[in-house]
Design a protein that fits this description.
The chain is globular. It contains nine helices and seven strands; from the N terminus they run αββααβααβαβαβαβα. The protein has a single domain, classed as Glycerol-3-phosphate (1)-acyltransferase. It has 201 residues and is of the alpha/beta class. It has a seven-stranded mixed β-sheet, with helices on both faces. Helix 1 crosses helix 2 and helix 6 crosses helix 7.
Length: 201
């Protein structure tokens, strides 16, 4: 499985030609939630592969179970990059995705999440769903780190099966935190803006 992980990292870097920029943020092993815009099924793989090796082993991408559990190859890939698969179709009150994520990360792992929930249709980001807010509320100690992924959607466009090698860029910004008493809609707007503003840097 370790070999598969190395192969995935190598292929992701070749296909994405990814440039990684850390802006007012440095690679750190403290627990974080990396939250990014979502344009392609490759987003999680490319972002995870772009992290330094010592962070990759401590970081789990959160991915849709209905996509990554299908077939023979996808589950193997998901296991190789230690993805946390969430069932979006059977959400139960006593077993919410946020509770599952926090339980799985414990006091060791960081997570990669996509607050839009599903992939955006065009260049404009969709509205952020409430999960990131509840993560910040339940674990105020976690650094919430905005990430802007640019051009990965053109490597594997919606509806395509085979990726096309292209250059892409990942910009990782300064951590934010949920402020005391901050309303949900205000925080989600601020978090979305933190990602959007990275695109203009």
């Amino acid at each position: 499985m370790k070999l598969t992980g190395h192969v995935i990292v190598l292929l992701a870097k070749i296909l994405s030609g990814c440039t990684v920029r850390w802006v007012h943020c440095q690679p750190d092993t403290c627990q974080r939630i990396y939250f990014a815009n979502h344009t392609s099924h490759l987003d999680a793989v490319v972002l995870w592969s772009a992290l330094p090796k010592h962070l990759r082993v401590l970081t789990r991408p959160v991915a849709a179970k209905d996509y990554w559990a299908k077939g023979l190859i996808r589950p193997h890939i998901a296991q190789a990059f230690n993805a946390l698969l969430i069932d979006r179709r059977e959400i139960k009150v006593h077993k919410s995705p946020v509770d599952i994520m926090l339980r799985q990360m414990g006091d060791v792992y960081s997570l990669i999440v996509f607050p839009e929930g599903s992939r955006a249709e065009g260049e404009e980001m969709g509205e952020f769903k409430s999960g990131l807010y509840y993560i910040g509320k339940k674990r105020p100690d976690l650094e919430l780190v905005p990430v802007c992924i640019d051009n990965v959607n053109r490597i594997l466009p919606r509806g395509e099966v085979l990726p096309v090698p292209l250059l892409s860029c990942i910009t990782i910004g300064a951590p934010i935190f949920l402020e005391a008493g901050e309303p949900k809609h205000q925080f989600l707007h601020r978090a979305r803006e933190a990602v959007r503003q990275l695109r203009d840097l």
